[in-house]
Amino acid sequence: MEEKTLIFGHKNPDTDTICSSIVMEDFEKKSGNKNCKAVRLGKVNKETKYVLNYLGMEETPCIEDVEDGTNVILVDHNEATQSVDNIQNAKILKVIDHHTINFKAPYLLYYRTEPVGCTATVLYHLYTENNFEIEKNIAVLMLSAIISDTLLFKSPTCTPEDEKVARELAKIAEIDIETYGLEMLKAGTDLDDFSEEELINLDAKKFTSGDLNYIIAQVNTVSIDDVLKKKEKLEEEIKSVIERNGLDLFVFAITDILNSNSQIIALGDRVDIIEKTCKLENNTAFLEGVVSRKKQLVPMVENNI
Amino acid sequence: MEEKTLIFGHKNPDTDTICSSIVMEDFEKKSGNKNCKAVRLGKVNKETKYVLNYLGMEETPCIEDVEDGTNVILVDHNEATQSVDNIQNAKILKVIDHHTINFKAPYLLYYRTEPVGCTATVLYHLYTENNFEIEKNIAVLMLSAIISDTLLFKSPTCTPEDEKVARELAKIAEIDIETYGLEMLKAGTDLDDFSEEELINLDAKKFTSGDLNYIIAQVNTVSIDDVLKKKEKLEEEIKSVIERNGLDLFVFAITDILNSNSQIIALGDRVDIIEKTCKLENNTAFLEGVVSRKKQLVPMVENNI
């Protein structure tokens, strides 16, 4: 029996991370690596639950840590800060990703990143290159990931290739993209059950750039005002996260997926970085046309440090 | 007209770096990127000259630097220290490599590394995935790169995939691997024309690991003794490189390609790292079965820092 391989995406898993880990398990098994298993590093969000429910699939198992020397495959991330805590002692066999690269490993591995909007688009290329069949449930998972990451092709991170692949997958999945996609995205905006603490952690990514440590968190909504009602308590929670983690900056983006805008709340000693782009009033600002953490919010920090 | 893309491998180019840059130019043109050009970052060695001569091909142009914002594709390397001096101001479109990864870029790109012995093996995969024809001269270039990097399949860096790909390429190239390969490798061991300064720079790679700065240089030969005759002058040159570059360690490996052993000369304040593996006498040691910088010499340093 070959050694077990764990396949996972980033912490605070989103739909691309969960779906791509399950798809990658299928791809690995089709490639002959039978003893592999998709797992996750946190709670499944409501959007992803909608997808798994549509397919009648169970959630993948949640892991807290990996033992030293465990074989792992990373999907949808490459930076150690976004991965499992013990990643530096794991043996990374492959990375399949679509993010900027900040990666170091002292051994050889398979690394594949493409400049596209979603990991599932890269996975689709792996299937076609290898002439592997894409079954219907796998197509639904990949399509859902692309719809999620590109906000139904409206995000600036969306490339023509993502949309082309999504339309191919929709045929296999026998899904009407607009109808299914809007239902799926709306399912993800149901924030009622979440405490303020949970909201700011729902989709939070930590970044390190030189000496600067910051988090950009994001929630999708159909009503920015509904979320802003909780502003005071959200700020309390953000301040406590900043203190606990010694952060220089925390940006919380409330993104209106129907109109493609975001309201941000920014706190921390280095809010001056954000104020190089927009004026904060009471720690908050409305950003017209901003929906993408990767293409818009991260550069807003990185270009102004 | 689209912007020009320069394609190059590492400094101190070897056969894989030169051949893979030319092959990648062909691949890019077949992919529709017409305005691209293979270039090099240093002198073509005698082994590579043998290959180009066999094909009646000109050497690629040598560049010293790239202008800010130039589109580039890196083959056979990813670390900035091994690339063109101004790499941090270039726009890297793609990386095609087979080395360990120490890479950071603040923008999206295509990155492809596989755990194989040669960049040309990865390039072969790109051709087959895209159903691109491999013409005879391209097959000769790829085959030569694999023979060089794997020392005719005898290096521990050689994987079954490298050998499989080489045997496929040999059919297209209409080449007898053993005969051609031995002639090519022998052509590379003709060191007579080189000064001691040139010898230690012929295939030198610089590495940075935390605070440690070191170089591992390598020459291939059919007679270690012939090279060792120059030991005193080689040591003088090594000491001067250490001083000029503020290095902690310089390892010069003289590799016997017929018997697959190496004699090393190690100098610098941190020779203690090397002495954790082998005893140096008069700064030198014989390493049975050691032929690979990547799989044997680099780990000898990295595992003992």
In words, what does this structure look like?
The structure is a homodimer of 305-residue chains. Chain A is of the alpha/beta class. Chain A has two domains: 5-186, inorganic pyrophosphatase (n-terminal core); 196-302, Roll (Diaminopimelate Epimerase, Chain A, domain 1). Chain A has helices at 15-31, 46-55, 119-129, 136-150, 160-173, 177-188, 196-201, 224-228, 231-245, 271-275, 293-302, and strands at 5-8, 36-38, 71-75, 91-97, 101-105, 110-113, 204-209, 212-221, 249-256, 261-267, 284-287. The first copy, chain A, has a five-stranded parallel β-sheet. In chain A, strands 7-8-9-10-11 form a five-stranded mixed β-sheet, with helices on both faces. The model of chain A has no long low-confidence stretch (mean pLDDT 95). The interface between A and B is medium-sized, with 22 and 22 residues. Strand 6 (110-113) of chain A pairs antiparallel with strand 6 of chain B.
